[in-house]
Specification:
By secondary structure, the protein is an all-alpha fold. The chain has 2 domains: 43 residues, Arc Repressor Mutant, subunit A, CATH 1.10.10; 140 residues, Tetracycline Repressor, domain 2 (Orthogonal Bundle), CATH 1.10.357. The chain contains 10 helices and no strands. The two termini are 33 Å apart.
Length: 210
């Protein structure tokens, strides 16, 4: 179901359900509560989406596609291989921060072993993995990168970004005499530096920021 074909009611249901899935997870989202929050009856939900599983699939697939399309476009806009890797990290971080429901849902799915992760949504995330592999292979062929497993690198990138975004309330609760919590651009610049230094045959401190 593409966003072009969705009615205003369906879009409203999607918006509300995305937030509820982020807050409560798939199992914790109750359709009666969703109907109340969206200001519709359950029959209206099932008119637009055949069941809860279908609603979850459409929700996640659309959200993930928006994020991934943005990241890949940013990566394709630069030519240098190391800059492509940096751009992938920083672009994903910035977009995830703008769409906090995505990292929240991802963290819940990772914690549960992805038991409810719809295949089309997972396929959107795989586009990031494939793009990362393409960058790493290119770097190896150019003699710039060491040969490192792309899946492990993918987990480090996505995991660190999602944890940083979703842990903000917990970090905000830390009482300290000095500021311990870095801003997103500082934290992700450090992540980019760490990953790049693990990849590069001649490590350097890049001082990356969003």
């Amino acid at each position: 179901m593409s966003e072009k074909k969705l009615s205003k009611t369906a879009l409203n249901i999607l918006q509300v359900s995305t937030q509820m899935f982020a807050d409560h997870g798939y199992e914790g989202t109750i359709m009666d509560n969703l109907a109340e929050q969206a200001g519709v009856n359950k029959a209206s939900i099932y008119y637009h989406f055949k069941d809860k599983e279908h609603l979850y699939e459409v929700c996640l697939t659309q959200q993930f596609q928006v994020l991934v399309d943005h990241v890949i476009a940013d990566v394709e806009a630069v030519n240098d291989t190391t800059q492509k890797l940096t751009q992938l990290i920083l672009s994903f971080a910035k977009k995830a921060d703008e769409m906090p429901e995505v990292p929240s849902i991802l963290m819940r799915e990772l914690a549960s072993g992805g038991v409810n992760m719809p295949v089309p949504a997972r396929e959107q995330l795989q586009r990031i993995l494939f793009k990362l592999k393409e960058i790493l292979d290119r770097g190896v062929n150019e003699g710039v990168f060491n040969a490192i497993d792309p899946f492990s690198t993918h987990i480090m990138i996505i995991g660190s970004i999602c944890f940083f975004v979703t842990s903000k309330p917990m970090r905000d609760a830390i009482k300290a005499s000095t500021q311990l919590d870095p801003k997103l651009e500082e934290a992700m610049g450090s992540v980019a530096d760490i990953i790049l230094n693990g990849m590069l045959k001649s490590p350097i401190k890049t001082g990356n920021k969003i």
